[in-house]
Design goal:
six-stranded mixed β-barrel; 14 helices; about 55% helix; alpha+beta
Length: about 425
């Protein structure tokens, strides 16, 4: 590789056949460029969609509905209502549950007042565990704590919309009172939703109060509207979902075959399906790009065969003067490696440069594509692509090099 004469010969050959070499190298360049671009775009799509998941990726949302099957003398169509006792039973009988966050909501939007300012907001009753399932930014104050739950304190955590409507621009809401249906609540904190989807916009319109306070103040005694659960590490969410539903069915006299009495949303299952989609996209990107690269490599091999044919007399003279087969082979292989590696490296730089430019422009102009964000290329994949190119270049030059090594000096000198 350090032989100056070989490099000079390679340079002379490439310079002599610029168009032929350029067209051959373009196939390799385009394959690597498309690979990097497609993988970067796929990663940007993955980052954008995963960024929309502003909840724990193994969460289970569970709520009660109407029964659809008669059971133990009870008619179908009966409304099932979950209670605080169900929460205690789940904690006691389903050890696989890591976090459980019961929730209630005041039906519809309610007028919330502060002095002369009034607007309608969604009011949710929550537990502190909500932050382990759906994290928020807390720029001011705090979230609901266990003391609030135990003492049924009338405290509230408000979002961006409530701050905008009920308070002046530079005013600190923490420590101020707001009125919800004639009941005064002390604002103990503010939150900012994380994410970009419609649900985040709904969260901005929400006011959170302790669930026990909501139950007592707004006449929902011992009622749970829905609950959010997460399994312990290493345990599938589907297994926990099945066990919790079976326990609740037993407690509320619901037929084991009744699939409509309890509704649920398994976030982990949906997330795994999305991950499978991204795996398919990455596989498709590799398939398309490798096909293009192989076409380019085959082109390099064909060009090297032509080079060997054109230089048959020269190779014969070299062998007649004592050149070893390895020196002939190394010259041909080195030329093939140079073409593939140089074209591939330029394609790698062009692809990563374009991905970096797209990311820069999106950040500079604050482009919010929703489902697409932060395109990037894995460094390990880029290095692996370069190594594969070097190997491919070696293989592309191997057959022509072997043919060159078998050249008979006498026959080569007679070649016209």
């Amino acid at each position: 590789m350090l032989d100056i004469d070989k490099w000079t010969e390679i340079y002379t050959t490439v310079k002599k056949h610029k168009l032929r070499t350029g067209l051959t190298a373009f196939g390799v360049f385009w394959g690597i460029f498309m690979l990097v671009l497609l993988l970067g775009a796929g990663k940007g799509l993955e980052n954008g969609i995963v960024g929309e998941f502003n909840i724990a990726k193994n969460a289970i949302f569970l709520w009660s509905q109407r029964t659809s099957v008669p059971y133990k003398g009870l008619q179908a169509g009966r409304i099932v209502r979950m209670t605080n006792d169900d929460v205690a039973a789940i904690k006691a009988n389903v050890p696989e549950v890591d976090v459980i966050a019961p929730s209630n909501q005041l039906e519809g939007s309610f007028a919330v007042n502060r002095d002369t300012r009034t607007s309608s907001f969604t009011v949710n009753g929550e537990y502190p565990e909500l932050l382990q399932v759906r994290p928020f930014k807390l720029p001011q104050g705090r979230f609901i704590n266990q003391i609030d739950i135990r003492e049924r304190r009338k405290v509230a955590v408000i979002g961006p919309r409530a701050i905008e409507v009920l308070f002046d621009k530079e005013e600190n809401p923490v420590g101020e009172y707001i009125s919800i249906k004639g009941n005064y609540f002390l604002v103990v904190g503010t939150f900012e939703p994380i994410g970009q989807d419609e649900e985040v916009q709904e969260d901005a319109q929400t006011i959170y109060i302790p669930n026990t306070t909501l139950q007592q103040t707004f006449n929902q005694p011992n009622q749970i509207g829905y609950m959010t659960l997460t399994p312990k590490p290493g345990i599938a969410a589907a297994a926990v979902e099945e066990k919790v539903k079976a326990l609740l069915s037993q407690r509320h006299k619901v037929a084991p075959t009744d699939l409509k009495a309890f509704g649920s949303w398994n976030v982990e299952q949906e997330f795994m399906e999305i991950q499978g989609l991204f795996t398919g996209i990455a596989g498709f990107s590799w398939l398309v790009s490798i096909g293009t690269i192989l076409a380019g490599i085959i082109g390099v091999g064909n060009i090297m065969l032509i080079v060997v044919r054109e230089r048959t007399k020269e190779i014969g003279i070299r062998k007649a003067l004592g050149a070893t087969p390895w020196s002939i082979i190394s010259l041909i292989i080195q030329e093939a490696i140079v073409i593939t590696a140089a074209a591939g490296y330029v394609g790698l730089l062009a692809g990563t440069g374009l991905i970096a430019l797209i990311e820069f422009l999106m950040k500079k102009f604050e482009v919010n594509a929703g489902f697409f964000g932060n395109p990037e290329v894995n460094l390990g994949i880029a290095v692996a692509a370069v190594l594969v190119l070097v190997l491919a270049g070696t293989l592309a030059g191997l057959i022509p090099a072997a043919k060159a090594a078998r050249v008979n000096p006498v026959a080569a000198l007679k070649d016209e």
